[in-house]
Amino acid sequence: MWGSSFALYKRIWFSNAVGSILQPFLYLLGMGIGVGSLIDDRTGADRLLDGTTYLAFLAPALIATTAMMTCAGEAMWPLMDGFTWTQGFRATTATSLRPVDLVAGVALWLATRTVIASGAVALVLVIFDDTRSWWLIPAVGFAVLTGLAYAVPLAAWTSTRQDEASFPAILRFGIVPMFLFAGAFYPVDQLPAWLRPVAYVTPLYHGVELCRDAVLDRLDVPSVTIHLAVLMAFIVTGWIVARRTFTTRLYR
Questions:
Q1: Angle at alpha carbon of residue 166, lines to 75 and 175, rounded to 5°
Q2: How far apart are CA 246 and CA 49, in angstroms?
Q3: Cα atoms found within 13 Å of the Cα of residue 249, Cβ hemisphere only
Q4: What are phi and psi for residue 194, nearest 5 degrees?
C-alpha cells in the first residue's frame, strides 16, 4: 500500500519538494522577518514571546502547521478517490490485503508525506540563526504525530462518505480556524478567556508547543508527556474507528 503511493509520488516529487521549501521560506520572509520586525520593536514583545524574537516564535510552529495541512488534505480527496472514483481500495482488498492493512498503509504513507513536508520546513529553518538547531530533527518527529492526529480520524471520516461535499466545510470551519487560533502566530493566552480551552484541546496546539519547545531547547518532561498523550489519544482513537469504518465500507 505504501509502495503504490510512493510510486505515484515519484512522478511529482520535484515540484512538490520545491514548493515545500519555497513556500515556508517566503512565509518566513514576509511574516517572520517583515511583520516580526514590527512586533519585536513593540515594548514588551519579548515578555509576551517568552524572550524570543517573533521569527523564533513563529518558525518552529510552521513545522507543525505544515504537518496538519499536508495530512488533512491527503486524508480527504485522495482517500475519497480510492473509495469512489477509481475504486482503487476495492481492487486492493480483492487481493490478500485486508481493510486493516489499508489503514496501516495509509497511515504509514501519510507519516512519510509529513516527514517530507515538515522536513523541508526544517531545512528552511536552518538558514536562520534563531532556529538553527539539532533539535529540528525531533521537531519533525513531533510534527509527524501532529499530522497523524489529524490524518487518522479524517481517514475514518472519509471512509464513511459517498462524496466530497463535507470536505470544504472541514477545511473552512475546522482546519483553517485551528491554523489561526491554536498558538502558531501568537500565544494562546492572548485569546479571549472563553476561546482558550478550545485551542487547548486541538492537536495543533500540542504539536506547535512541542515543535517550538524543541527548537528553542526548552522541552521538559511534564509538558512533553501531556502534549504527547493528547496527540496519541487522537491517533489511537482515530485508528480504532478507522479500522472499523474501512472494514464496513469495503466488505459490505
A1: 60
A2: 44
A3: 27
A4: -75, -20
Q: Helix or strand or coil: residue 202? A: coil
Global pTM value = 0.90
Number of domains in the chain: 1
How many contiguous H segments (helices) and E segments (strands) does the chain have? 14, 0
Convert 207-218 to b/e letters by CB count within 10 Å (16 or more is b).
Answer: bbbbbbbbbbee
Q: Return the pLDDT at 46.
A: 67
18-76 pLDDT per residue, tens: 777 888 888 788 877 777 777 777 766 667 777 788 888 888 999 999 999 999 999 99
Which 3 state secondary structure label does DSSP give 135? coil
pLDDT tens digits along 95-115: 888 999 999 999 999 999 999
| Spacing of C-alpha 159 from chain mean position | 20
Question: Domain span at residue 130?
Answer: 2-251
- What residue type is 54 in one-letter code? Y
Tell me how far apart the alpha carbons of residues 200 and 98 are, in angstroms, rounded to a whole number.
36
